[in-house]
Write a structure and sequence with these properties.
The structure is a homodimer. Chain A is mainly α. Helix content of chain A is 60%, strand content 6%. Chain A has a two-stranded antiparallel ribbon with strand order 1-2. In chain A, strand 1 and strand 2 form a beta hairpin. At the A-B interface, helix 1, helix 4, helix 5, helix 6 and helix 7 of A face helix 1, helix 4, helix 5, helix 6 and helix 7 of B. Chain A binds a DNA duplex through helix 3.
DNA sequence: GTCTGCATGTAACTGGTTACATGATTAT
DNA sequence: ATAATCATGTAACCAGTTACATGCAGAC
């Protein structure tokens, strides 16, 4: 997939402008699918060319006009078909893992700092997600789309929690290696 | 970053051909950074144009010649600099989360099947990673690059474990919603 | 005779990023 | 004054995917 189906999903939930969509990509949807505003506008145009979305221009006073997009029937059909298709291969691309693996070819202290920054980022995410989870006081009673939103949120919490735990492990590992360091020139990489 | 530094990292560990690198992207490195063979060759060419890698052509009998790549001094410098730079923003793109969020616009049964497939995939990864971890019998005594490889592996285990747990939660949630289903026409999405 | 592994690439395309561009309103 | 928010986009570029292309060796 690409950003297309994330936009289709959002518009299926409620109509919106390119601006509103790109703000969502910075916030809620952005937690599992990121996009810049430029790409959002480009994709909306493409989706419109394909007949999957429609828009109405809404004039405003003291503001630029806005285009409020809605799903077309064809768009609704495409979204339904896409949901039924199996998901593509999971492609992980984690720069931090590559950096940790390469740490001994550079400055380990800088890598520790980078891992700490990542840890704080995910700790912040985790706190935010747990705040959102308060809106679901009785998870066992959820149904339909509200349940689905809750399950996605649980994914964010599970991932952020795992990321924080892993970062802590990496920091502890790299720092304890630092204190036990040997004089330079002594390669301990295979000890 | 991009695939460039993953290749530089691998070549810093040991020289290799494009073919060997692309096989690694299917296996070890591929667990945290994926790439096709076409992209590997393209990037090696670019890296060579930039003077970051060098190669020697090795003729073989009954096989095509191969190009064995090594890091140049400039490549080693670039890798060192890159390790010291902070990592770019973490960009998550998870198709499955979008699909779960969109489930009520399509066929929930198909989504359950997709989640089950993802669960099996990560359970397999987890088993493989735990097998690799056997090569590190005494983690507390590790140092330098071997410690770094172990920490990256721990990241894979932590992530795969979290992914399996989350998939199980999603499957249980979607299946229990199914058994408690109401007659069609009754929208329960905000109950 | 078919498939897998070794070994290399080119070409066309799609998806996504970065830089540039405009302009009013509201809050500090 | 300055920054943030609302609102839209174009242009150039870079990264990555898919399809196409070649050819030998060895195993089944």
């Amino acid at each position: 997939m690409s950003i297309e189906h994330a936009i289709l999903t959002s518009l299926a939930e409620r109509p919106g402008t390119g601006y509103e969509l790109s703000r969502q990509f910075d916030r809620s949807i952005g937690h599992f699918w990121s996009a810049t505003h430029q790409q959002t506008y480009k994709t909306l145009k493409k989706l419109h060319d394909q007949g999957l979305v429609e828009f109405q221009t809404v004039p405003q006073d003291g503001r630029p006009d806005k285009k409020v997009y809605t799903l077309s029937e064809a768009g609704r059909r495409e979204l339904r078909d896409w949901v039924g298709r199996p998901a593509g291969a999971w492609r992980l691309r984690d720069e931090l893992s590559v950096k940790i693996r390469a740490a001994s070819f550079g400055d380990v202290e800088a890598v520790i700092a980078t891992v700490k920054a990542r840890r704080e980022l995910f700790a912040d995410y985790l706190a935010a997600y747990e705040g959102y989870a308060d809106e679901f006081p009785d998870p066992a009673s959820l149904h339909g789309s509200k349940l689905h939103r809750y399950l996605v949120l649980r994914g964010g919490i599970t991932l952020a929690d795992a990321m924080v735990a892993w970062c802590d492990e990496v920091i502890a590992g790299l720092e304890s290696d630092r204190v036990s360091e040997q004089p330079p020139g002594h390669d301990r990489s295979d000890e």
